[in-house]
Amino acid sequence: MQLEKLIGHVTFAFLLRRPLLACLRSVYDFSRSRSEVVFPLWPTVVKELKMIRGLLIYARASLSRPWSPTVVAFDAAPS
Question: Taking the chain (79 residues) in consecutive chunks of 10 residues, what is each chunk's mean pLDDT?
């Protein structure tokens, strides 16, 4: 449960720089594969957590920058 909370905060922070979300594969897989039982972290999860630690500095955005008057939205749905 602690990993899920951490990854929730990281995901929220990485939304400021969406390409950073690409490094969250194993942590998502690990959190989905486990229930309330405590298991050791997979080596790939440890590697991603170290990568996250290094990338957090880039999860920022300037809110003082001018806003675009054009709104663009994409939907991942196939239809």
Answer: 89 92 92 79 95 94 86 74
